[in-house]
Write a structure and sequence with these properties.
Length: 458
């Protein structure tokens, strides 16, 4: 597949890294020559310095025979024009644009993105993705990472293994014997900085980070087995009242459970907009690092503090100050991946990486083979993929133990009709099933091939 990626920032670079690693023909375009040089030097891609929305630049990037264009520059308008040029001049079939402004995302204007108007096939909103990720973190405070699958009926959770974990030093194969009715799978383990897909004889050790997958009705018991407790969220302090903080507060207001929410926002104008937009949320104007203001917000009685300003270091320090003031759960928005190793020593419980959430949402629309959802783990080290099993897929009709999966691949769950089945070696995959698979990044291309439909299906 020939792909043009417009924008060589963190998102563009990560997408280029994914696609080039799977032997796609990738060209990266950016008006910053240094970013283009970085992509060309570190990845197996071609680079072109220039404005992505210019037809002559896209022409030199190979737009005449490109299969897809991904417009992920920092400008919404450049991304929109790039997709329009890609359609009108070069007839590129698949066009994905990243749009930040809420004005472009309002549902009442959805007709704007039609072939006869603005021909964008997929619109990705980083702020909406981040707000949803924040809500998922708040809903699962015992996990440092989480994502929903199978229409919200199953969940991936990242759990830190404490020394008092009940299943520590227990081979994973024994978990099935000890908890035969529990539909939980350990998909990946991070140990001493390295992520790997475990084998049946592997054990969990204190200090490990385990990625586990279970249906939502099995989550309470899963947390209990792994030594975690569910903490009810009743009071939340949000630091940062911009689009992300506002979206989270609005969702909490309209949610099924009553949660008392307070927002702290440094910019008076943004604070006033948030106060006007929300009904039950208290908005405080001031600096979230101010101890007196945190006290006024009731931080010592809060169940969680969520820090989503536009500055990573402010987010980290504010989260630490919230924890020091007595808040048991601190979640911080972190853009710079090099800061992530500092979070655990600082006592920050979870973080949200906006680049990773955006990359995951874009990958969902790139993957082939009936893929419904994709979630990227860590620094693009692995992926959890949800996909339909087509009638002519090589998986259909085969027992799991008969499928030639690469070593770094595990089946997390199989949904058949309304039932979610725990995958065992004897379970036979059927056409029409929905399958969830974990794959190390190096094995994703092979998984895609297994999922793809042969040409005689069409």
């Amino acid at each position: 597949m020939k792909v043009i990626i417009c924008g060589a920032g963190q998102v563009g670079w990560q997408i280029a890294r994914h696609l080039s690693g799977e032997n796609n023909d990738v060209t990266v375009v950016d008006n910053n020559p240094d970013l283009v040089r970085r992509a060309a030097d570190t990845l197996d891609v071609q680079g072109l310095a220039g404005f992505a929305s210019y037809p002559d630049v896209l022409d030199r990037a190979g737009a005449r025979d490109a299969d897809m264009i991904i417009a992920a520059t920092y400008s919404d308008e450049v991304n929109i024009v790039t997709c329009q040029v890609a359609h009108s001049v070069f007839d590129i079939r698949r066009k994905i644009a990243r749009l930040r402004s809420q004005s472009y995302l309002d549902a009442i204007y959805a007709d704007l993105y039609r072939e006869e108007h603005l021909p964008i096939d997929v619109v990705i909103s980083p702020e909406r993705e981040v707000a949803e990720a924040a809500l998922q973190r708040l809903a699962a405070p015992a996990a440092f990472d989480t994502e929903r699958f199978l229409g919200g009926r199953a969940q991936l959770m990242g759990l830190r293994i404490a020394p008092d974990c009940p299943v520590i030093n227990t081979p994973l194969r024994q978990l099935s014997d000890l908890f035969s009715t529990l539909r939980v799978m350990v998909l990946a383990i991070r140990r001493e900085g390295r992520l790997f897909a475990p084998e049946a004889g592997d054990q969990l050790f204190a200090g490990d980070e385990a990625y586990v997958f279970a249906p939502v009705e099995d989550i309470p018991r899963t947390l209990e087995v792994f030594g975690k407790s569910e903490r009810k969220q009743e009071r939340i302090v949000i630091v940062g009242g911009g689009n992300i903080g506002l979206a989270v507060a609005r969702a909490l207001e309209t949610g099924p459970t009553r949660i008392r929410t307070k927002i702290i926002e440094r910019n008076r104008k943004i604070a006033e907009i948030a106060a006007d937009s929300l009904e039950r949320t208290i908005v405080l104007h001031g600096d979230g690092l101010d101890s007196a203001l945190l006290d006024e917000a009731g931080i010592s009685r809060a169940d969680s503090i969520l820090v989503v300003t536009d500055d990573d270091k402010t987010n980290m320090l504010t989260a630490v100050r919230g924890k020091a003031a007595g808040c048991p759960m601190a979640i911080a928005l972190i853009n710079d991946p090099t800061l992530v190793p500092l979070l655990d020593p600082l006592g920050i419980d979870a973080h949200i990486n906006p680049r990773a959430t955006t990359v995951s949402s874009i990958l969902r629309h790139i993957r082939r083979g009936g893929v419904r959802a994709v979630y990227s783990i860590g620094d693009a080290e692995g992926e959890v993929i949800e996909a339909d099993v087509m009638p002519t897929s090589s998986l259909a009709g085969a027992a799991i133990r008969e499928i030639d999966f690469p070593e770094g691949v595990l089946v997390a769950a199989v949904k058949r009709g309304d039932k979610i089945l725990k995958p065992g070696g004897e379970l036979r995959i059927e056409a029409g099933d929905v399958i969830v698979i974990f794959a190390m990044a190096s094995d994703v291309a092979q998984v895609e091939q297994l999922l793809q439909v042969s040409m005689d299906y069409f």
